[in-house]
Structures are given as C-alpha cells and as structure tokens.
Amino acid sequence: MTRVMVVDDHPMWREGVARDLTEAGFEVVATTGEGRQAVRIAGAALPDVVVLDLQLPDTSGVEVISGLLAAVPGVRVLMLSASGEQQSVLDAVKAGATGYLVKSASSQEFLEAVRRTAAGDAVFTPGLAGLVLGEYRRLATAPDEADDDGAPKLTDRETEVLRLVAKGLSYRQIAERLGLSHRTVQNHVQNTLGKLQLHNRVELTRYAIERGLDDA
Amino acid sequence: MGTTRGLQGAYRLGVPDALQVPLWRAIAVFRFASMAFVVVSVIRNIRDYTHPVAAVPAVAVLVLWSAATAALYARPAWRKWPLLVADLLVTLALLLATPWVVGRAALDAGAPTLAVAWQAGPVLTWAVSGGRRRGAVAALILGAADLIVRDKLTQSSITGLMLMLLAGVAVGHVARLTVESEQRLQRAAELEAAGRERERLARGIHDSVLQVLAMVQRRGAHLDGEAGELARLAGEQEAALRALIATSVPAGELAGPDVDLRTVLDRYAAPEVSIAAPATPVLLPAQLAKEVGAAVGAALDNVARHCTAGTRAWVLLEDEPDGVIVSVRDDGPGIAEGRLAEAAGQGRLGVAQSIRGRIADLGGTVEIVSGRGQGTEVELRVPRVTP
Predict the structure, then answer these.
(1) What is the pTM of this model?
(2) Domain of A69: which CATH number?
(3) Domain end: A77, A96, A122, which one?
(4) Residue of B211, B235, B316 with shortest CB distance to A130
(5) DSSP helix/strand/coil, A6
(6) pLDDT in tens for each of the 216 residues of chain A?
(7) What helix, strand, coil percent values describe chain A, rounded to 5?
(8) Which 3 state secondary structure label does DSSP give B273?
(9) Which of B55, B114, B302, B316 lies at 20 to 30 Å from A165 by C-alpha?
(10) CB contact under 8 A, A137 and B314
C-alpha cells in the first residue's frame, strides 16, 4: 500500500484530501500544516509520496522539499498550489518535486496524480510544461550560462513533446501524433525534469565550493 | 542629500505643498537680508536726504512688513491674492515715496532708493505662488516704478530691471517644477500603497476564500444538477480570483512602456482555459502586448462560439530571442479540411481571418492547424520589433 503524507496549512482541505486518499486505498501516514514539522516527522512516517501545498506559512516550498529528500531519500513530492505562483512552482521542481497539480483539479485527477507520482512518473500540468520550457529558454540565453557547457539543453524531440504537454495534449495523444510509444513520451517528459534537477544540484554544489562551504 | 531626505520626510507627513515650504522660507530670509542692506544704506546716506526725518517711518514700515510677510506667507492659507497685492502695494509705496524723502539731488548723485534690493521680495512671492508669468508681471510693475523714481535711464537701473525679471522667471519656473514633482511623488506613493494593499489582500484571499472555493469545486465536481452547478460556479470564481491576485502590481503602471504579456494573458484564465507561460516576465511594448492579447481573446471567443460547452482550451506563451509565440489549442471537434479556405472564398472573413489581419499588422504570422476530431490549434508568432 502506498504511504502518503499530506502537508497543507488549511485544515478543511487537509482532512478532505486525507479522506479521499483513504477511500481510494492509500495509507495516509501523517498530516500536518507546517513545513518544518513535515520535515521532522517524515523520517519516522516514511511516506512514499508527499502531497505538499507550496504556500505554507512557516517556510518555503523549496526548503521543505530539500528537507524531505534529505530525511527520506527517494521520497516523491507532488505539489499542489491554489494560486499560480509560477516562480515558486519552478523552484520547487528544480529542488526535486516531480509532480504538480492546481488545487482546482478534480478528485479523480488528484488521485490519478498521486498514483502516477508513486509509480515514479513526472506529473505535469500544461502550466508546469510552460514554466519548464521557459526555464530552458532562460538558461540558454542567460549571459553567464550561454558559454557554459554545463547548462542543460533540451533535445528537439524533448522540446516538441514539452510544447505539446503545455498545449494540453495527453501523453496518449502526443504518442499518437508523433508516432512514439506512450512510455517513450513519458521518458522524454521525465528527462526534461531530471536534467533541470541535476543542473540545480550541480549549481548548488559549485556555489558551495566557491564559498568554501564544503569544508564546513 | 540631507535636504532631499527632509523634503521626503515632510511629504510623508501629508503636509500639502511640502516641497514649496523651503522656497517660502528662502524668500523670508532674502527679505530680512535685503532689509538689513536697505537700513545700512539709509544710515550711510541719510545726511544727503531732503527729508531725513521721514526716512524713520519708512524704515519702520520696511522692518514691520518684512516681519509680517515672513509670518503670514508661512501659512499656506495666506498665500492668496489679498496678501500678494498688499505686498506689491507696500513695496510700490516705499519706492514712490523715495523722490520726496531722499530728494532728486541725492538720487541723481547715486543714492539708492528706499526699497533697493528689498523690492525683489514681491517678485519672488508672486513667482512662487503663480509661476513664471506672474513673477514677470510683478518684476515689470516694480521695474517700471523704479525707472519712474530714477527719472532717467541709467545702465544700473536697466540692469536692476533685467535682474528682477530674470529672478521672477527663474523662480517661477522652479516653483512650477516643485509642484509637478510633488504630484509625481504623490502618484508614486499612491501606487506603492496600492501595491502593498493588493499584496495583503492577495495573502488573505489565498489563505481563506481560494481554499474554500477550490474545496467546494472539488467536492461537487462529480455531482449532477444544482450541486454540480454550484461547484462549477465556485470553480469559475476560484480561477477568476486567482488571476486577479496573481499579479502583484499592474505591470504597465510601473514598468513604463513595456508590459508583461503574462499579465495580459492571465486575464483569460478560467476553469476550461489553461495558461502556460515562463516564470520570468515576457516584456513587450504596451501596444504590441495589447494587440497580441486581443488576438488571443478573439481565438478563445471563437472556441466558446463554435464548440460545445465544456470544451477546454490551452494557451501557451513562449519567449524566444526574436519574438514571442502564443499558441491557443482547443479540444473541440476541429475544422474540416478546406473549410477555412472555403469560408474566406465566400467572402466570410470570420474570426480566424481577423486574427490573421491583426497579427499581420504586427509583422507576425499565424498558423492554424486543425482536423476533424483533433481540435484546432492557432499559433501566433510575433516579432519583438514591429516593422
């Protein structure tokens, strides 16, 4: 049974989500309304998937995601957000979240997203695809990144797939249109996230070394 | 630097005309300094005067009026016509009394008038209260009176007139500038306050209303009838509110001529319309952004008009180095092949053509891809610089 932790500061929403998950056969191992507490209890609760509201009162989504990944290596984070705060969504993805859903999504969409996140798939909304496309474009044109071979790039195929995701096509429709298998489409989407997260980790490490923090 | 900070400090307290206060103070200082100059010159020349005793009340008027104007002009309510006219008349009276008190002989010998230098006071007050033109009028009136008193044109009296005229115009100009910059400061402060208030509201709305609306929509989405309708309405309001609070300050108001195209497109967000865009601003000249926004609006209208209710649409905004790409896709029935060309052939331009026209005017291109059962995709490519 998939173990799920729900982190959301709104009690009504939190209980509703937990109930839906339980009814659908998931095991809700913990619920909390605070990011720091989520990081503290994650080590004991050992969730497979964390459903995380990005706008928590006590700390940023990035901090919670980093903390969760450190406490439970391999945990998958599906983030939810009510308002389209785009930069924070992008930051969360770079920090290691693998799924994103707006809160207005239906219960069915939500449960499907949790299932797919648990299975290791990247759960993209068209909005997230637009953000990721924009981020690759920014990395390609940013002056200090352009001559740097380390800046991640999308292959033509990945760009094509990501654009179709952003235009609302399902993986099945994309597979049909491009003559690929469903699995291949999924891999392409996942790779776009993977490269971004890897780049983010490399950047953080480089920053730490430059500042001499690796000695500490 | 210190002065600037002081001005802003006074401004924040909400004192009206705060930026003019230093100007009025400077005029008072000028009056006292020039008053001292007149007193010294009277003492030096009083032996040569025709009526030396009359010089005493004249100097008394001079001193009293300097003190009175310093006190009265300090209050904004008094900076009006009655005081301004009285100021001019008192100065004129002193000037015109000069020939009798000082005497023609002493004046011709080069003795200064009873209002020398001090007579520039009203020129400055008129200029500060009403700008360049008013300052020039006061300078001309007093200059003319000065020439009459002198009875003959000398180089120094002409120079005096010109200097007064210059002072009136220059100070009037500065006064006008302070009024304008004050208005700008006011506008900036209002914008800042509005932005802060908006952020506060956005936080509040996010924490309460949005959560509940999303919850209602989610709980009722699968219900039929009235409950389902309520859920749908809640969803629409959630999306509308989310779009409203998503942008902190209307970009056009602060960023000058460039507008973030994302904020323009965000207005179209709805439960059935998804907007995908980069996380960083996509800046375009305001007019260009408006046109692109209108084209996207037309494309979405087209979807709403020709497709069944519940048809979804996706807008994707991409920021390329040489321009922007905006795609609008729907999952409606699509347009049969040849249907677009057929409609155009019959002279019915239709929405698609009006979009083409709009974008062509911007030097861009439109590509429409559609097929039965595949929905319709409209892709707009607009260069950053219009030809």
Answers:
(1) 0.61
(2) 3.40.50.2300
(3) A122
(4) B316
(5) strand
(6) 899 999 998 888 889 899 999 999 999 999 999 999 999 999 999 999 999 998 888 888 899 999 999 999 989 999 988 766 678 888 999 999 989 988 878 888 899 999 999 998 888 888 899 999 999 998 888 766 545 566 788 899 999 999 999 999 988 889 998 999 999 999 999 899 888 888 888 887 877 777 776 554
(7) 60, 10, 30
(8) strand
(9) B302
(10) no
Q: Are residues A109 and A155 in the same domain?
A: no
Query: Predicted ipTM?
Result: 0.85
Q: Report the residue count for chain B.
A: 387
- Is the same domain home to A107 and A207? no
* Domain total of chain A: 2
Q: What is the DSSP letter of B71?
A: H
Domain that holds residue A46: 3-122
Same domain for A16 and A86, yes or no, is yes
Residue type, B308: T
User: Which residues in chain B are closer than 8 Å to A138, comparing Cβ atoms?
Assistant: 278, 280
- Which stretches of chain B are assigned E, i.e. beta strand? 258-260, 273-276, 283-285, 313-320, 323-330, 365-370, 376-383
The DSSP output letter for A84 is -
Inter-chain touch B329–A168, beta carbons under 8 Å: yes
Tokens of B191: 């914008």
Residue that has been written with the tokens 């979804």 in this structure: B312
CATH architecture of B250-387: 2-Layer Sandwich (3.30)
The domain boundary residue, chosen from A92, A122, A152:
A122
To the nearest whole Å, the CA of B164 is away from the closest chain A CA by 57
Show me where the domains of chain B are located.
Answer: 2-187, 250-387
